[in-house]
């Protein structure tokens, strides 16, 4: 299928590896010019070069912490006019409800709620003026079904989800669509770290943790960044214009719910 977005320009936040990179690759394959972002310059520049070589699109890497006001300003300045925004950032650390105080919540809200909201606030006016835009926020399955040890993530992402539900309907009349993609377990460094911490806490092998988790997912495996990226590219395509303010779960059937 031709996604109909060749020559458009996208910012993909937090994209030197993992799910962000999967989205960047799929957009590049569709002919979209990219602005990529991560904190560490080395891996980011390597990823940018590989994507530019593989797909022949223009790729601009901007090394910055996307959760800081300075980082957002630097990325937006380098990016210029954008048709597509994919928001993403690292997830908050795991723990117990009694581990977290005001500062922990403020940091999680800053990273996983306010950062995507402020990026949208900056970019939506231009998209509305040009009559076309696509925003995909990478959130989490924890929005639909809480992951108890990720209380900071459950809370901050629920706030973003509420914002998108209303805002998506305010901008839709102008040809701008906003949706959220909710990853379940995907094979990236992030899940490797979480699995390792479970293995350590229980004194078992990481392979045993994985096997147990696979058994709880109807697809019997973790998702891949590649398949996640293709779903994102579709939501950024010409064909997603009637999908407005939705929360689309990619979890191998892990959440046992009819709707
Ligand atoms: P990952 O493999 O660890 O990759 C994270 C990427 O984000 C890296 O490129 C990292 O580069 C960049 N990054 C992190 N913090 C950043 C910041 N403050 N500013 C700019 N770039 C930043 O993680 P992932 O698995 O792709 O996860 C992406 C998001 O999806 C996270 O919020 C995670 O919580 C969520 N999620 C993931 C899963 C899963 O199973 N993988 C499931 C549910 C939700 P630098 O370190 O160089 O900045």
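^ structure tokens above, recovered residues below v
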């Amino acid at each position: 299928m031709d996604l109909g977005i060749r020559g458009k320009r996208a910012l993909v936040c937090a994209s030197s590896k993992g799910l962000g990179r999967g989205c960047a690759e799929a957009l590049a394959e569709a002919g979209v010019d990219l602005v990529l972002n991560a904190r560490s310059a080395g891996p980011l520049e390597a990823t940018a070069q590989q994507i530019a070589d593989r797909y022949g699109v223009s790729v601009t890497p901007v090394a910055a912490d996307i959760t800081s006001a300075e980082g957002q300003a630097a990325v937006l300045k380098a990016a210029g006019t954008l048709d597509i925004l994919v928001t993403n950032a690292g997830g908050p650390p795991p723990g117990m409800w009694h581990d977290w105080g005001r500062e922990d919540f403020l940091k999680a809200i800053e990273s996983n709620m306010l950062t995507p909201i402020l990026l949208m606030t900056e970019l939506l006016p231009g998209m509305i003026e040009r009559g076309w835009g696509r925003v995909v926020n990478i959130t989490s399955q924890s929005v639909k079904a809480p992951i108890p040890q990720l209380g900071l993530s459950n809370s901050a992402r629920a706030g973003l989800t509420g914002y998108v539900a209303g805002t998506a309907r305010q901008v839709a009349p102008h040809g701008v669509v906003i949706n959220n993609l909710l990853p379940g377990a995907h094979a990236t460094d992030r899940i490797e770290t979480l699995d390792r911490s479970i293995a350590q806490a229980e004194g078992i092998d990481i392979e045993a943790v994985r096997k147990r988790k696979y058994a709880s997912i109807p697809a019997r495996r973790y998702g891949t960044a590649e398949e996640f990226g293709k779903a994102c590219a579709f939501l950024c395509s010409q064909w997603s214009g009637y999908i407005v303010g939705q929360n689309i779960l990619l979890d191998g059937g892990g959440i046992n719910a009819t709707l």
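The first helix runs from residue 18 to 29.
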